[in-house]
Design goal:
The complex is a heterodimer of chains A (189) and B (269).
Chain A: H1 2-26, H2 31-52, H3 56-79, H4 87-109, H5 120-142, H6 145-149, H7 153-183
Chain B: H1 3-93, H2 98-126, H3 130-134, H4 136-149, E1 154-160, H5 168-187, E2 193-200, E3 204-211, H6 225-239, E4 243-249, E5 253-261
Parallel strand pairs in B: 1-2
Antiparallel strand pairs in B: 2-3, 3-5, 4-5
Helix pairs in contact in B: 1-2, 1-5, 2-4, 4-5, 5-6
The chains are: A mainly alpha (189), B alpha+beta (269).
């Protein structure tokens, strides 16, 4: 059941974000925490999508994408300054967008019996597509001269705040549908 | 906020709005497309289900027709003859001395008992839902018994593995395949030995019907009546998720195999 992993992911996010806040206040360095969290997040999302895909071709594609991301992580760790690099988050976002689009395609090729808007995975996937598209927008501008020159941190801060709010609302909606489906004895996507 | 700063901000808001609008458009478009495909899929399933039901009905009719044919033949060739002989015996009893008459009466008793037994077997064949009622093995056993009773064929039923019940629909289709194959062996192949083998494994049931009759080339039979029968068997095997194969060689007769996986679920009518 992939939603078991989604719950683990939400819990892990909460733990690591709390830890990051504590570290930011004490040793003022959260990079390591976020690096570890990134790895856990990628692994869990890969598992979730692996279980959600019905087409073998897409399932086979996941280990390949996972290895690519790990290589990006290693490249960043070895050759780039972690404090300045956004490669990790942009590549992760790209991976999630690719997985979300693959899943939409998978559903189109193998439509199920349930109304798609009442299936938990649909809302999770829509949330993923939305949140990580916004993330790419944000992080691709974040390190540029444009960002500091026009003091966009406040506006983008709001953007990230609301996109997080929408993303976690959609995740909550997905989990809620999952509980409903389980209660009715139906199997969701 | 300066003029250029404001215009950059404006462009940024426009770009972000376009991206978000595209996302919303994508999601809505996806939902519409998904519903369209879902409906097409649903219609296809309905069509398949109707075809499946029709095919099952046709199978049932063919089983009944074949059973009636066998019974009519059996009554004419076997029971009718036995009873005629019994009548003949009884007609001649009056003019015989007691010892010979007693022998004739005993022989007549045996003939009548045989006729009763044959009728009992036939009545089992007439039972409407016999496969669901008695199971595939017994139904095949009865079919072989009737052929064996004619005295023209030697029949064998070999069962290996631990027996389990398949869906009634699957068993009915398999039974019809056995009937058709045996009919072909008797009518076209002029076989003397007929063998049906059921091999039960946890994953699949393999049904093999073999004879020692005349061989043929399955590919050249496509247009003939027997060829249509073979095609029907193949189609029905596919209908229940089975794999159909046929082998025919000059010295080894013909063997028809159907492998039915146990986890395949046919569309329930």
């Amino acid at each position: 059941m992939p939603f078991k992993y989604l719950v683990i992911l939400v819990a892990t996010t909460f733990i690591f974000e709390t830890l990051a806040v504590v570290l930011a206040l004490t040793i003022k360095n959260t990079l390591l925490v976020y690096e570890i969290f990134s790895f856990i997040q990628v692994s869990l999302f890969c598992i979730i999508y692996y279980k959600l895909f019905t087409l073998q071709l897409y399932k086979k594609f996941i280990p390949f994408l996972f290895v690519c991301i790990i290589l990006v992580f290693l490249y960043e760790l070895l050759f780039l300054s972690l404090a300045e690099s956004d490669v990790n988050i942009i590549s992760r976002s790209l991976l999630y967008i690719i997985l979300a689009l693959f899943l939409f395609r998978d559903w189109l090729l193998k439509p199920g019996n349930l109304n798609i808007t009442q299936t938990p995975a649909f809302w999770m996937n829509a949330g993923m597509l939305f949140f990580f598209t916004v993330n790419i927008l944000f992080w691709s501008i974040y390190s540029t001269k444009f960002f500091t020159e026009y003091k966009l941190s406040k506006v983008f801060g709001y953007l990230l705040y609301f996109s997080n709010l929408i993303f976690y609302s959609l995740i909550f909606l997905a989990l809620n549908y999952e509980v409903k489906l389980n209660r009715n004895g139906q199997i969701g996507r | 906020m300066g003029k250029s700063e404001g215009s950059y901000m404006f462009i940024l808001i426009i770009v972000a709005s376009i991206v978000l609008l595209l996302l919303v458009f994508f999601i809505i478009n996806f939902i519409l497309l998904y519903q369209k495909r879902q409906q097409a899929n649903f219609k296809e399933k309905i069509t398949m289900k109707t075809q499946f039901e029709q095919e099952l009905l046709q199978t049932q009719i063919e089983i009944q027709e074949q059973t009636l044919k066998t019974i009519s033949q059996e009554i004419h060739d076997n029971i009718g003859q036995v009873l005629s002989l019994a009548k003949l015996n009884l007609n001649t009893v009056g003019s015989m001395n007691d010892t010979i008459a007693q022998t004739k009466i005993d022989s007549t008793k045996n003939l009548v008992s045989k006729a009763i037994n044959d009728l009992r077997d036939l009545s089992r064949s007439l039972h409407g839902d016999k496969i669901a009622e008695i199971g595939l093995q017994e139904a095949i056993e009865n079919e072989l018994k009737i052929l064996q009773n004619t005295g023209q064929f030697k029949t064998h039923l070999i069962i290996t593995g631990e027996i389990y019940k398949l869906d009634p629909q699957k068993e009915m289709v398999l039974y019809r395949i056995v009937q058709e194959a045996l009919h072909n062996s008797v009518k076209h192949a002029k076989a003397n030995n007929l063998q049906v083998q059921l091999n039960y494994t946890p994953d699949a049931l393999t049904l093999t019907i073999s004879d020692d009759g005349m061989s043929f080339n399955p590919e050249t039979l496509q247009s003939s009546k027997t060829g249509i029968g073979l095609k029907n068997m193949q189609n029905r095997a596919v209908l229940i998720g089975g794999a159909f194969s046929i082998h025919s060689s000059k010295n080894n007769g013909t063997s028809i195999s159907v492998l039915v996986p146990t986890n395949f679920k046919p569309l329930n009518p």
